[in-house]
Amino acid sequence: MTSRICLSRRFIRTQHSDAPPGAFTEGEDKMRVYALAILGIALICTRGEAAVLEKEIPLGSEKSLDVSVEFGAGEVNIRKAGDDQVFQGRFEYEDKGMLPEITYGIVGDVGELELGLQGGTRTVEDMEPRWDLGFTGRVPIDLGVQVGACKGTFDLTGLKVASLKLETGASDLAVLFSTPNEVALDRAVLKVGAARVKASGLGHANLKTLSFKGGVGSYTLDFDGEIRRSAKVRIDMGVGSLTLRIPTETSAQIKVPDSFLTLFSAKGYEQVGNVYLSPG
Questions:
Q1: Which terminal CB of the chain, N or C, has fewer other CB atoms within 10 Å?
Q2: What are phi and psi of 96, to 5 degrees?
Q3: What distance in Å separates the CA atoms of residue 165 and residue 142, rounded to the nearest whole number?
Q4: In terms of DSSP H, where are the helices of 25-176?
Q5: Coil/strand/helix, residue 98
Q6: Residues contacting residue 230 through CB under 8 Å, at least 6 positions apart
């Protein structure tokens, strides 16, 4: 069972932003074929059909992995890769301006992987690329993801996540741990904008610290799962709403700032000043 705790602001407003329009290259009405080699990958793109690029990087002597992902608008999903792979990726897109850039090297015993778009993040009107990314579950991973207006699922089940940094724009994202993280997640930082984000299985994450900063949006932090250590969680909210779900058997203390803009309710919790204590 879980306790449902709601935190919201009195004044809620919405903001709308239009991505800058993009354009095809000259001669878009003609059949075009592109060929590209990136890190030994052959790519063929035909006008009117989505291009598909697949990339695998085998696991070698790496003892840990440092990953940086930058993605604009579209869909991006994260999962565990095959046991013998540092990285498995599948990239779909329809315009050559959305070619992924993949950089990988080993420094000491650390694999360093960078994923982005050639020329930086950009938006092409009516074209939303899709990235499906898989990372090794055999070594600890420091994972940094920066995305714009996108949707996706970050299924971190089976990954050894040592640190996590997620920054989003106007996104609709799910982040989840379905089984216990085998290493301590020393620091998780979530900075989300005008988004809808749900993080579940946070009890499985093996957290030490979590910093969450929300803007205009709707967010859920669900701490279900196997909680194995005490964790410190800091939450900073803008004009939005946040729901915390904490298992009833978990001992928790929640300190709420004294602000007339903040509405807070915690059913079953004992209030002592601006501190709420769990029944456990």
A1: N
A2: -65, -20
A3: 8
A4: none
A5: helix
A6: none
Closest CA to 173 of 204, 150, 143: 150
Q: Residue 277's Cα: distance from chain center in Å?
A: 30
pTM equals 0.80
What token pair was written down for 152? 């996706």
DSSP-based three-state secondary structure for 96: helix
Residue 53 tokens, joined: 């690029």
**Beta-carbon contacts of residue 142 (< 8 Å; ≥ 6 apart):** 64, 65, 66, 67, 162, 163
Q: DSSP states of 49-67 as a string? A: S-EEEEEEEE--S-SEEEE
Q: Is 38 exposed, middle or buried (0-12, 13-18, 19+ CB in 10 A)?
A: middle
Pairwise CA distance, residues 253 & 267, whole Å: 13
pLDDT in tens, 79-128: 999 989 999 999 998 776 678 999 999 999 999 999 998 755 454 454 67
CA–CA distance, 203 with 205 (Å, rounded to integer):
5
pLDDT by residue (tens digit) across 123-178? 445 467 899 999 999 999 999 999 998 999 999 999 999 999 999 998 999 999 99
**Residue-wise burial string across 172-201, b where 16 or more C-beta atoms lie within 10 A, e elsewhere:** bbbbbbeebbebbbeebbbebbbbbbbbbb
